[in-house]
Amino acid sequence: MYRTHNCGELRLSNIGNQVALAGWVAKTRLLGSMAFVDLRDRYGITQLAFNEETNKEMLDIAETLGREFVIQVEGVVAERSSKNPNIGTGEIELIVSKVVILNESITPPFTIETDTDGGDDLRMQYRYLDLRRDVIRKNLELRHKLAQLIRSYLSGKDFLEVETPVLIKSTPEGARDFVVPSRLNPGSWYALPQSPQTFKQLLMVSGFDRYFQIVKCFRDEDLRADRQPEFTQIDCEMSFVDKEDVLNLFEGMMKNLFKDVKGIDLPDFPRMTYADAMKYYGNDKPDTRFGMEFVALKGEDEDLVSSKGFSVFDTVESVISIAVPGGAAYTRKQIDALVDWVKRPQIGATGLIWIKKDEQGNLKSSVDKFYSIDDLKSWESALSLENGDMGLLMAGAYGKVHKQMSELRLHMGSELGLRKPGEFSPLWVVDFPLLEFDEEQNRYHAMHHPFTSPLKEHLDKLHSHPGEVNANAYDMVINGVEIGGGSIRIHDQELQAKMFELLGFTDEEAKAQFGFLMNAFKYGAPPHGGIALGFDRLCSLMGGSESIRDFIAFPKNNSGRDVMIDAPAPLTKEQLEDLELS
Amino acid sequence: MYRTHNCGELRLSNIGNQVALAGWVAKTRLLGSMAFVDLRDRYGITQLAFNEETNKEMLDIAETLGREFVIQVEGVVAERSSKNPNIGTGEIELIVSKVVILNESITPPFTIETDTDGGDDLRMQYRYLDLRRDVIRKNLELRHKLAQLIRSYLSGKDFLEVETPVLIKSTPEGARDFVVPSRLNPGSWYALPQSPQTFKQLLMVSGFDRYFQIVKCFRDEDLRADRQPEFTQIDCEMSFVDKEDVLNLFEGMMKNLFKDVKGIDLPDFPRMTYADAMKYYGNDKPDTRFGMEFVALKGEDEDLVSSKGFSVFDTVESVISIAVPGGAAYTRKQIDALVDWVKRPQIGATGLIWIKKDEQGNLKSSVDKFYSIDDLKSWESALSLENGDMGLLMAGAYGKVHKQMSELRLHMGSELGLRKPGEFSPLWVVDFPLLEFDEEQNRYHAMHHPFTSPLKEHLDKLHSHPGEVNANAYDMVINGVEIGGGSIRIHDQELQAKMFELLGFTDEEAKAQFGFLMNAFKYGAPPHGGIALGFDRLCSLMGGSESIRDFIAFPKNNSGRDVMIDAPAPLTKEQLEDLELS
Question: What is this model's ipTM?
Fold first, then answer.
């Protein structure tokens, strides 16, 4: 037995107890005739006290202890003279009577502290030291807690956790699969799942009724910042449900999580159609922590800008504006900076027009040589400008300008401090288009996946106007982050066949790739639907960080490498020969 | 909303309620003017009643319902006239006022019943229908329940669930890895983990103190019956522990599981050394539900058989015997069958000698022309034969004959009904040899893995007599099944380097494969140890089945194929080109 207590446990009530602790030397303070050592483990820090008078031998050992040495100590708990109110053990210290050095440590390449001096690359290479830092460990403790709460919530709702296979079959549709050569079946390959989609649907055909799994998924994509080739999904499916059943259940789950973990009562999640999200936020995952909804000054039914001599507005399809609260105070320099910002290639706008309503209610605009005061008043009214506000206008093709304005809106939200880290604004985005047309390939793609059910009321347009059909699909969005998405699935074999046809599958291709699912549908498939939530993303959202990497114990870098273990790496000749790939 | 209740829920207290149910048609009984339909879902079966008098229209629909049709019904709960005490809903039925056929079904290729008429291959091909059977679903419900209980137990003991990566680096030592080509790093490969061993040790270096994970692992072996290329492990690791800490904690976990799931109070787990297990059972995973321990009649210190004219016993190294309770009643024919059984090539024994003590206490033996009554009495005494017992003797080289006798012992246990399915006899086997010598390659292999710590008291033999060093390793065995195993690990970099050297690694090889771990040990690695339990195996043991496949939702067959989805399969030319493998 190495210890009787952990380093975060001892209190005033333990005074006089003989105890043993084990942990890492976080800090030593040598004061000549005495020394103090902060002993750290996962649970906390306990101060060890050494004193020449009471135990010279122990003091001598204490003086040899280096940072990150692993030691075991025995001693008696005593009240501290100068207490530390910031830590749980701050009222006591251990008068050490025995020290055993369990392991030494060379000097770590960076400091094991919340604000470390280690850069990203170094911390990744020595991830095992990075994980010693409080801040990263707390992230993973949060992840642990969330996983347990999610499982407990879902189990309580009759969901069964079922493990689906990792070695499955490649389906060339969609993103690229990671593949695994089969030694026992030369020339054949397994694929790693991008999601357990077809398996969870088969479980519904099997009558499992409610399924969940917190499961690793894999996608061989060209990596972007904060994308991981392996990621974790909370994967769920339910039978005999319609959309509202699914939304209510998972809304309930999120409310539970936020209450348990953060003490926050989330409001009911509003439902917003995809069309509205695009119209008012230019984005299918709007950050609704703040307003600044789009106002169309020129668009489908409106036109408050044309034929006034400002040719830019005359020729464009859309003019979109947002009202920036308090924006009238923006200086020329600040506005110039905004103009530069939207003109950057990442945004790609051609310019930015403003209208200000000062504290006295007077209107001014960067284009007031073209527009009369009455014109400006019509904008003011459309934008519901208050005294001190500023309206920002952008012009362009419908959709494109919405996207640009969406970026600007988020930028303004950040600049004005409206995207508050401790605030959470959830919503459901619903009624996504079923298909998106790929101009290059001249064919439709499934916006979610080929198993998504069209809205019942749009079924009759599936032949005539497939592009206008909406899906019975939904995304959960919180603070502008897509936490997850799902849909009611197709459970009818004929409709499923029709979908494959629309997506350009030949009968043979559909059969080769999804024959087992289409077969399964012949044997009494129930109506079903589900959702998959990004667990890494959820952890980082609830942990208040932008980076999912901080919530993954051993993440890969942007080239898909684990720099700590140095993977991937070449195989040996024997391994390649075994696989008949040499 | 498809239903107000599930099919296992309604009781007498619901009589008169208007309810909606949804599920599968399990059975229809058409009786002319009335019909009964058993509606099934995961939760149970509810009887639907149709009557010409009350609702002719509904009866007409009922008559069209085929097996496994998916329907939704509405109606009023009524008391049954003839009750079924075997099911929870057996006192009520639903008087149906509305039926909606949600999906039809063609005739399934086998019956969806506990005793199905479907063969193994057919059931695997249509696994989604096989999973509809009560018996398989209950297995997976048990698996779900065990997973939740295990996580809850370990979380309650301060273990943190941490996900370790699936795309890691290949280590050619040990079993074969499944490998994954990296498209972004051409020529480089990931490997799928055979276990998260090194990562969990790194987590201990990180100060995580207690880690667990229920995790998929992968091994590209030549498959045997009931081996799966992907399997699930309960993987655990703890810091600042010695062997007894680990054993007690996981013994506690098993006791909890058996109490919660089966209402069984497991006894304390005895500790048996590997040497004793081999000596008394010829097996490092003895089935201790019954006795019949080996008694050496000729061996290290004993010789009750030589120099009596029976040349077989004169020349062999060992003569081992077991006492078969009640075995004196065995007929000549039965004994001949036993002799044939041990002579089969799978066992490979040369023969079998018996000694009987009849109900009157008289001794008889198949070799009594060589041995006097006093000789036989010495055997009787060594074997503690009771009236009516039989002793069975086998001869051969030490170790080899133990293995053969182990098989015979298990066979006798089965024949005599001593291996009772509802009985559970757990134990820990401890003090395994650290190394085993590979005659062919003329080198040592790690019996567990290269990270296993030698027993402290054997450290001084590591140089001089490495073959005699025992490991601080342990296996959990229940009913002759190895449920899991683990060890206290090496946490000292020099000892670890020494181990790699003993195992024939060059410095370069050790560094290339495990450099990250050896590096980590330089920064304050705590003493640590852990265990990994086979989750598939544990489920099948607790579920009372021999086959782990019955406890895996979508298992692979003995060639590593998923015959349902038809994987593995060839890739497309484009996929191979992307991987530069075409």
Answer: 0.95
CA distance A47 to chain B (A): 18
Residues 384-423 in B contacting A (C-alpha not used; CB under 8 Å): none
The residues in B 234-273 lying below 8 A from A, measured between CB atoms, are 239-242, 245
Residue of B nearest to A125 (CA): B516
Burial of residue A512, with CB atoms counted within 10 A of its CB: 0-12 exposed, 13-18 middle, 19 or more buried: middle
| B176 interaction partners in chain A (CB closer than 8 Å) | 183, 575, 578
Q: Are B220 and B171 in contact, with CB atoms under 8 Å apart?
A: no
C-alpha angle B291/B296/B300, rounded to 5°? Answer: 140
The residues, ordered by sequence, that sit 6+ positions from A497 with a Cβ below 8 Å of its Cβ are A510, A518
Tell whether A339 lies on the interface with B, counting CB pairs under 8 A: no
In this structure, chain B runs to a length of 582
**Does A132 sit within 8 Å of B106, measured CB to CB?**
no
In B130-149, the residues whose Cβ lies within 8 Å of chain A are 131-132, 137, 140-141, 143-144, 147-148
Residue-level pLDDT, tens digit, chain B, 582 residues: 899 999 999 999 999 999 999 999 999 999 999 999 999 999 999 999 999 998 999 999 999 999 999 999 999 999 999 999 999 999 999 999 999 999 999 999 999 888 888 888 999 999 999 999 999 999 999 999 999 999 999 999 999 999 999 999 998 767 899 999 999 988 999 999 999 999 999 999 999 999 999 999 999 988 777 789 999 999 999 999 999 999 999 999 999 999 999 999 999 999 999 999 999 999 999 999 999 999 999 987 889 999 999 999 999 999 999 999 999 999 999 999 999 999 999 999 999 999 999 999 999 999 999 999 999 999 999 999 999 999 999 999 999 999 999 999 999 999 999 999 999 999 999 999 999 888 888 888 888 889 999 999 999 999 899 999 999 999 999 999 999 999 999 999 999 999 999 888 898 988 888 899 999 999 999 999 999 999 999 999 999 998 899 999 999 998 899 999 999 999 988 888 888 885
> Searching chain B, which residue's CA lies closest to the CA of residue A184?
B559
Domains of chain B, start order: 12-103 (2.40.50.140), 137-271+427-551 (3.30.930.10), 290-419 (3.30.1360.30)
Q: Cα dist. A18→A21, A58, A94 in Å?
A: 10, 16, 9
For B77-103, give the secondary structure using H, E and C: EEECCCCCCCCCCCCEEEEEEEEEEEE
Distance, in Å, from the CA atom of B297 to the CA atom of B310, rounded to the nearest integer, reads 14
Distance, in angstroms, between B265 CA and closest chain A CA? 26
All residues at 6 or more sequence positions from A108 whose CB lies less than 8 Å from its CB, including other chains: A67, A68, A126, A129, B523
- To the nearest whole Å, the CA of A223 is away from the closest chain B CA by 9
Euclidean distance between CA atoms A511 and B136, whole angstroms: 28
Strand partners, B29: B36
The C-alpha of B483 sits at a distance from chain A's nearest C-alpha, in angstroms, of: 19
Whether B494 has its CB under 8 Å from any CB of chain A: the answer is no
Asked whether the whole model's pTM tops 0.90, one would answer yes
Long-range CB contacts for residues B547-553, cutoff 8 Å, separation at least 24: B547/B226, B548/B226, B548/B228, B548/B231, B549/B226, B549/B228, B550/B135, B550/B136, B550/B139, B551/B139, B551/B140, B551/B142, B551/B143, B552/A163, B552/B228, B553/A162, B553/A163, B553/A164, B553/A199, B553/A203, B553/B127, B553/B131, B553/B140
Q: How far is B531 from chain A (nearest CA, A)?
A: 18
A82 touches chain B (CB under 8 A): no
Dihedral angle, C-alpha B168, A219, A131, A147, nearest 10 °: -110
Helix (H) or strand (E) holding A391: strand A390-396
